[in-house]
Amino acid sequence: MEQSEQANIVFNIEKIYIKDISYEAPSVPSAFIQAQNAAAEIGIQLGVEHGALSTEQGIYEVVLNVTATAKREDKNLFLVEVKQAGIFRINGVEGDVLRRALEISCANVLLPFVRETINDLVGRGGFPQLLINPINFEVLYEQKQAAQTNPARVN
Question: Which end of the chain is more exposed for a tag (fewer CB within 10 A), N or C?
Answer without folding.
Answer: C
